[in-house]
Amino acid sequence: MKNLRRTSIAGVIIATISLYWIVPENPMLHLDDPSHWGIIGYLSVLLVISSAKLAGQNRGALERNLLTGFLMAMPLIYIANWIRYDQQSYWFWVELMGVIIYWAIAFLSKRVSLLFLAFGIGAHAIWDIWHFNQGLYVPNWYVIGCTVIDVAAGFYALVQIKYWDLAFKSGGIRHVD
């Protein structure tokens, strides 16, 4: 299991580094663009989780809550892009359905099983791919970057479930390895 955990962390690192080639410009130069908000949000979540881990803290609740928030924010980027760039009513309803679906999955991850969290993040890649080359309001670079991140983060969350449970049982403080 330890190798699987290291593999999931390596996947997140590789996916994050790949953003350097996928994202066309520094997101901080485009604070008016929802697609760049998504990249900044992901990097912010990653920074907080990494900082907690480097400090020797395995705060399962913090990590789960951040990843749940990340899952809930993903479809909002599509809504924000629609508001900024498209505004055809049909696509609004499609994106609103995405919000409902992914928020329901986040709710289920809190109430039923953490597997929903891992599944929801990973499955969002399908939502991303569906938007590829649509020429609407979501740039292809974002679709590619989000897909890569969703797969890596979903796999990471799946592997972490065991460790989150151990951290919860030990008061959320113990570093598990």
Beta-strand percentage range: under 5%
Question: Considering DSSP H and I runs of 4 or more, what fraction of the residues is helical?
Answer: over 70%
How many DSSP E strands?
0
- End-to-end Cα distance, whole Å, is 10 Å
Number of helices: 6
Quote the average pLDDT: 89
Task: Write the H/E string, N to C.
Answer: HHHHHH
Query: What's the main sheet like?
Result: none
Shape: globular
- What is the radius of gyration computed over CA atoms, rounded to a whole number of angstroms? 16 Å
Determine the structural class based on helices, strands and strand pairing.
Answer: mainly alpha
How many separate structural domains? 1
- Given as residue ranges, the uncertain stretches (5+ residues, pLDDT < 50) are 172-177
Main attributes?
79% helix; 177 residues
Written description of the protein model:
It is built from six helices and no strands. The protein is mainly α and 177 residues long. It has one domain (2-24, 31-169). Helix 2 (34-54) packs parallel to helix 6 (140-169). The longest helix has 30 residues, at 140-169. It starts with a helix and ends in an 8-residue tail after the last helix. Residues 172-177 have low confidence and may be disordered.
